[in-house]
Amino acid sequence: MSEQNSPSEGIPDLADPATDPFEVARAAAAVIAERSGTDRHDVALVLGSGWGQTGDRIGETLASIDNAEVPGFAKAAVAGHSGTMRSVAIGDTGRRALVFGTRTHFYEGKGVRAVVHAVRTAAAAGCSTIVLTNGCGGLNRAWGPGTPVLIRDHINLTAHSPIEGPNFVDLTDLYSPRLRDLARQVDADLDEGVYVQFTGPHYETPAEVQMAKVIGGDLVGMSTTLEAIAARQAGMEVLGISLVTNLAAGISDQPLSHAEVLEAGQAAAERCGTLLAAVVATI
């Protein structure tokens, strides 16, 4: 591979405790700026299961970059995710969205720094707002597969934080009320709930789902909370949206499968893509 195609050369490993993760994020942002032809992006989106068509609906893709060509990133590890990031024009506003087609999940074992690297890169690229999406299990029977739900708060059951050292970040209004209101202006039927992150990669047991319900959860999944915390640390405004792809274990008597998640996501792709494109245009 040529020197031009090896941007990670000389960049410290995120897993090395001596590495400054923000330095790696700045290096990644520099590569994105070079490949996209712009020094600044305005809004970032992390697309989970079911949200893949969103980038196409926001506007014209001006640059597409293979994750593996950007420091600190790797190829997609989960079916239904795209291993590229895109620089997308937000309509004719002159603004740009940085769209990540995949995320690093906690259960991949690469460490929390890798999980939140996209968020820190987005902040280094100039983004002041980030939209975090996911596919999840629902605890409310009224939310059938294919229902988007705004995240109003979360419960982090990973027993980890992306914040290192005595940096006491306030999470009181982590999921922006302003952005949730904007989303409801686009789709008045949007409901909201509390997202609970388990470690995965196995699905939750019925007893664990009932525990999540008792402690105040409405949605269960394997992502998002660590990214949201890192975004708040970076000073970004956060909008979280879950796509209910199935009823959680024990809520329905049907067995869970990743194929079901992908099928529900594909069925809801038009609604989800249109919703997020309209929200991004108004931010």
From TrEMBL:
A biological-process GO annotation: nucleoside metabolic process
Q: Which UniProt keywords apply?
A: Glycosyltransferase, Transferase
**UniProt keyword NAD, yes or no:** no
Under which main EC class is this enzyme filed?
transferase
User: Annotated Gene Ontology MF terms?
Assistant: purine-nucleoside phosphorylase activity
Cellular component GO terms held in the UniProt record: cytoplasm
Query: Which positions bind a purine D-ribonucleoside?
Result: 204, 246
Q: How does it associate, per the subunit comment? A: Homotrimer.
NCBIfam families to which the protein is assigned, alphabetical: PNPH-PUNA-XAPA, PRK08202.1, PUNP
What is the purpose of this protein? The purine nucleoside phosphorylases catalyze the phosphorolytic breakdown of the N-glycosidic bond in the beta-(deoxy)ribonucleoside molecules, with the formation of the corresponding free purine bases and pentose-1-phosphate. Cleaves guanosine, inosine, 2'-deoxyguanosine and 2'-deoxyinosine.
Name this polypeptide is given: Purine nucleoside phosphorylase
